[in-house]
Structures are given as structure tokens and as C-alpha cells.
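Students often ask what a holo structure prediction actually looks like on paper. The answer is less mysterious than it sounds. You provide the chain, you provide the ligand, and the output is a string of C-alpha cells encoding the 3D arrangement of the protein together with aspartic acid.
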Amino acid sequence: MPTPTVAIGALGGTIASTSSTAAGGEVVPTLTAELLVAAVPGLDAVASIEAETLARLPSPSLDEPTIVRTLRWAQRAVDAGARGVVVTQGTDTLEESAYLLDLFWDRPEPLVVTGAMRSAEAPGADGPANILTAVRCAVAPASRERGVLVAFGDEVHEARWVAKTDSVSAGAFRSPAFGPAGRCVEGEVVYGAPPHRVAPLDLPADERDLRVPLLATWLGDDGFVLDAIRPDEVAGVVVAGFGAGHVSAAMAEAVGRMAAHVPVVFATRTGSGPTGRAMYGYPGAEIDLVARGAVGAGWLSPVKARLLLWALALRGPVDRDLLAAELAVRGTP
Ligand code: ASP
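The corresponding C-alpha cells follow.
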């Protein structure tokens, strides 16, 4: 039986990085998609690969337009017959790219994002194993209708919950609140529950240059950084608050001033768990922030809430009720 086709698009990152000096010093992204694929033993038994180098960037230098171009490339690949698509990139912003792709991925075929914590020439490089898992995930019938997935270290995560939770560990990727959606065991991809997919957003044809800043609050924050943002220069703001999304009383006033002009989302900076809804009544807690016009991110992390607001703003100014409705659906398991 012929193997299914999988398109692999490479964006750079550690997975594609090799030493920039003959002596084997610091690494930079150099490898093409073809070279990444060539380093994976046994891949041709799983799928017939169409490899394309989309960029060779460190992932902190990726941006929304690059990810939107990647989305369009992936859509073309499945339209041309690919059973699934794999995107390789740096791990630093992988959780954001995966979620941005997921917001717009409107195909049943799996789109799987992966990377590596060890560079291509390092002992025990994890890139080839992660690519193999990602391709297995991309061809698995059980992966269909699940939107965008992240394959890393034999685990499969939903794009909306996955996070890089360690700066250097080979096991850096986790879905802190809910755990991985699936595992790859003896070459088979197995999920713990059936697909549960929120409908994707429409991607407008014209590109808009939008800013949605994300601010983390801190002990003693009096709101001066938030007040320094000019509302006419942003499409909205996300605040990563303490605990269940809380800020100081002074910062709450700054939130109210900003929310009078543009949408403000409060999220939790803890790395796991939802924003509060009805527990605390003090100034700067959830009830007060909502009364001042802000909206809680629910279970979405600050970076993912920021991307959702950015994606909604592509269609024009974001109405607070629409934002609350979207967060209620997309920020809930
Ligand atoms: N440390 C990063 C990585 O794992 C570098 C990057 O994100 O490009 O790929």
C-alpha cells in the first residue's frame, strides 16, 4: 500500500540549528527542511514527505504574518492531497504559533507542530524523534478533527493548552492544567478522549498591522506602564495578573481607564489554572475588574489570550460582549 503524503514546513529553531564555527561553538538555524527529514530514520516507512523550507529563523523572531503565511502554505498542502501537515520551529514561541494556527485551521487534517530542545548535532538530539512522532501523529486517523496539535517527546498536546514550562529541559512541553491529549506508543498515536474542537475563526484576506501588548503585573504595580500605552495605538491589552488574574487597587484603576477605550483581558501569570469569576470582592480582583470593563481569560494563558484578541481584532474593533463570548468558549475545556 502506498504511504500517505505529509507536508513538512520548516521555520528554523534549535531543531534546525548547527554550530556556526568549525570548533563547534554556539548554534544558529541553518538546516533546510530536506536536511531535517533526511536525519529521521524510518520516516519513509510512515509517509512520503514533501519538505519545504519556509524560513530559517530563531523563533523569537517569528511574527504573526509569518505564521499566517505558514497557515496558508499548510492549507495548500492539504488541498493538494497531503494526509496531514507538520511544521517545525523553535521552541521558544512554539506554544504561540501552534495556537495562532489553531485559531484559523479549518481543515479536518491534522496540523502538527514540533521542535527540539537539543540542536541537530548535539548528543541525543531530540529533533529526529520529535519529527517522527509528529509525522505519525499527522497520518493517524485518530488525529483528525483535532485542530492543531503539538508533538513533543512522544506526547501529543492540544495547541490551546500546551506551554513551554522549562527553559532548557528536554521535557519542556506540558499542558499544565489538563495534561497531554495523547501519546505515541510503539508507533501508534492514542488519545484519551474523542475530539472536541471549537470552530475556527475566519481569516480575513487583507492583512492588518495590529498591536496587542501583554503586560505582567508585579508587587507594587501602580499602573504606570499600562497608563503609558496610548489606546489609539493598540487593538487591546492583556494583563497577566497575580493568582486568578488579580491586580493591585491602583492597577485596577488603570485597567478601567484602558478598558474605556479598548478591550482589556486579564489572565493569570501563574502558568496554570483559570481566572476567577465570582470569588473575590476586593479592588483589583475578578469581580472588580469585570465591573471596570475587563474580561477574564478563563483557562487561556496570557500569551494565548493575547493571540485570540489579536485574531479577533483582524476583523475590526472588538466588541466586549463578543470577546467575552469567545473567551467563554475558547478559554474553557
Ligand atoms: N531555544 C529555542 C529552540 O528551542 C530557540 C528558538 O526558539 O528558536 O528552538
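The chain has two domains: 5-191, 214-330.
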